[in-house]
Amino acid sequence: MAEIDKKQYEPQTSILMSFEMSVDDKPCVIEGELGKNFSLKLSEAAKLGSPISFGYWLRNDFKVDCGLLAPITKAGGGDLYKTSAEYKAAVAENPNTVHAAVVEHLKLKDVPAWLQSTLATAMMGELVITDLFIENRADADGKEIKKRKFGLKLQFPRPLPLMESVTLKSCGFVIKSAPPIDDKFEGETKVLTAQPAVATGLIAFSKAPAADDWIKIGGATWTFAAQQGERQTAAGGGVMDDILKRLVVELNESQDAQIKLCTYSLAPGKGDTDREIWVSAAQPGPAGNDIVLAASAAKIGAEKTQSTGTLAGGR
User: Fold this and answer.
1) Which of 62, 144, 220, 275 registers the highest number of CB atoms within 10 A of its CB?
2) Total domains, the chain
3) Is residue 215 a contact partner of residue 203, using CB atoms and an 8 Å limit?
4) Looking at the domain assignment, is residue 271 inside a domain?
5) Do the domain assignments include residue 7?
């Protein structure tokens, strides 16, 4: 008669844990098991926030002076956003408009002009925990197997310029540790799926547009003329900043069906005196990639690269 392995009948105790959390108002579950085996995993990628949203949290909850991070001030005084939630909602609606506001805030804080745009983009970058997986268990022979995986990602709501024609959309890393005999990670953190994004493009100005210059958005052509009119912005030798500010207001207030396909914001350009008008599809999705963007004298770019004649980056 075969000898009975009594260990097979000995009770094994384990404790199952589950922490239901909320990260950025979205559910996030951390599950674990304690006992002979131990495991811990994050159910979905968790967005931790940006330096700006973190600054608002410290300022509002702990009364910490956060310097450049919060609050974002506006010309004439006052806070542009009162809370982290207001700031995040504005970024979700149009990150280019928020970027322009942060640049203006940095200008008021006497940050050098050459650094303002890049620093604003970096301050808006969002940190995400993409992976968290820990497991200690014994295999069939009783040998201990230890597995670890941890990942972080920094993603920017608009491209971060690094050098001429080179931009950074996100950066991250994943650390894995597992024995060769069992180096697969099953049941780990769900992959962070790409969030819906609006298509964008830009028109870069190094000098004031002249009368008869034009830009084209979708099927509509908007011209610069001696005086304001339908689909016209007054130019006629004026100061570039004044003309472009007026243009952005008029484009955003236009009731033309083609112009309303997008929203518009003014931002600093590469040079101290250069300016860019960012054009963003009004709705996220790949359809925005088909919106035509063209101009007569201004250089056109899609996400700071040579233009293909349309917006880009929509998904």
Assistant:
1) 275
2) 3
3) yes
4) yes
5) no
pLDDT in tens, 114-134: 888 889 889 999 998 888 888
Q: Same domain, yes or no, for 41 and 55?
A: no
- Indicate whether 88 and 206 sit together in one domain: no
- Residue 191 forms part of a structural domain: no
- Asked if residue 250 and residue 159 are part of one domain, the reply reads no
How many CA atoms within 13 Å lie on the side-chain side of 168? 15
Range 281-299 average pLDDT: 83
Residue 249 confidence (pLDDT) above 70: yes
Residue 288 sits in which domain range?
200-306
What is the Cα–Cα distance from 55 to 58, expressed in whole angstroms?
Answer: 5
**59, part of any domain:** yes
Could you tell me the two tokens for 88?
Answer: 């995040």
pTM: predicted TM-score of the whole model, two decimal places: 0.61
- Predicted pLDDT of residue 305: 38
Q: Are strands 38-42 and 46-49 parallel, antiparallel or unpaired?
A: unpaired
Q: Do 193 and 267 touch, CB atoms closer than 8 A? A: no
Please give the Cα distance from 17 to 180 (Å, whole number): 28
Report the chain's terminal Cα–Cα distance, integer Å: 67
